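User: Before I run my own analysis I want an independent prediction to cross-check against. Here's the chain; please return only the C-alpha cells and, at the end, one sentence I can use as a sanity check.
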Amino acid sequence: MAIRSITRTHRASIRNQRQVRDGLDTLGFAAAKLWNVARWTAGRVWDACGQIPDDSVLKSYLKSHERYADLNAQSSQATLEELDEAFKGWYGHRNNGNEKANPPGYRKYGDDHPRSTVTFKEDGFKHDEKNGYIRLSKGRNTKAHWSDFILCAYDADPDVAIENVQQVRAVYERGEWRLHIVCRHDIEVEPPGDRTAGVDLGICNVAAVSFGDESLLFPGGGLKEDEYYFAKQRAECDDSFSREAQRLDRKRTERRTHFLHALSKAIVAECVERGVGTLVVGDLSGIRDDENGNPTNWGDHGNLDLHGWAFDRFTTMLDYKAEAEGITVEQVSERDTSKSCSVCGRCDDSQRVERGLYVCDDCGTVANADTNGAENIRQKVLSNPQREDRDNGWMAQPAVRLFDCREGVFAPQEQVADREP
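Assistant: C-alpha cells:
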C-alpha cells in the first residue's frame, strides 16, 4: 500500500452569507476593476508595439496602482495571471484559424461591474479546521482598520475532509457567494494490477484505449453536437454580451466539462476493471503546430474542432482520477504512432487508407486506425513490445462506448438507446 498526495477542489456553501456578502461583493467588484485596468494597460501596449505584456510585466507595472491595493497582493496577482491566460487562449484560437475569436474584453455591463472570482493564496487566508471557518484577507484600500478581514463559516459535503488547504476561491454563483477550496490529501492507494493501457486522443473518436488484447472507442459525437447546437443558438442572439448569450456560454461550458469528467471517469473505471497499473497517454502539446512550429491548417471545421478539444484539461482530469485509484499516468510522444503498424512496426503514411482504417502492406494487419495508434502508444513504455504476428481481431473491431445524454455517462453502444443533444 502506497501513500500518495493528491489535490482536490471542494465546493462549500457559506453559512453566514448575509454577514459576509457585502465584504465579498466589494472584493468581487475590486477584482473586476483591476481586470479592466490591466486590460486597458495591455491594450495601450498592444497599440504601441503590437505585443501583449504578460502577467509578470503587468504585475510590475501595476503594483503601485490604487486598484492593485483593493485586494490582497496575491489576489491581485492571481487576477493578472487570469488575464494573461485569457490572452493566451485567444492566441490559440487565432493561430488555429478562428478569425472570429475576440480578445478578452472588459468586465463591465453599462455602469455596473460584475462580481469577479477572487483567489486567495497562502498569504491571503487562514483556515480554522476545527470550527469550520476560513478568514479571507482584504486589500489595504478596502480595510476599515489594519486587522479587518472577512470570516466565512462554510459547509462542505459531509464525506469531504477540508484539510491542508492550498488555495481558496470566492465564486459568485447563481446569486450567492460560494467557496472553492483547494486541498491536498494524503491517501493510501494500491494499483489495481500491473497491466499497461494506451490512450490515443482525437476529434471524431475523442479517445481510443488499447489494453493489448482488447480495445475501446469513445466517439465524440455528443460533444460535437453540443458545440454546434450552442454555437447556432448563440448566433441568434442580437447582443453577444446579453444575458441569454452569457447563459448559453455557461451552459455550453458546463456540458463540455461534464462530458470530459464522464469520459475520464469511464476510462479509469475500465482500467480498474482490467487490472491496469500504468496508463500511457499520447502527448498532444504540439498537435496544433507543424514540424517547423507554424500553425497547422486542418481546414475550417478541423481548426475549430481541434481548438475546442481541451486536450490539456482532459489529461489533467484523467491524471487525478487515475491517481486516486493507484494508476500511474505517463505521457509519451505521439510521433509516428498513427503511421506505424503496431504488429510489425512498419512506418508508412500510405498505410492509413482512410481516417478510420489502417492496413499494413507488410504483415496484412487490418485495424481501426485509432486503436492501432493507441496500441503503439501503449507499446512505447513496454520493455519488450510485441512486434509479431498475432490475432488482431480486437484491433479491427473495437468495442464502442457512447455518451448517454439522458444519464450523463458513457455506456456500451447497445445500451444507449438515444443520444439527444
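Sanity check: The CA atoms of residues 20 and 141 lie 18 Å apart.
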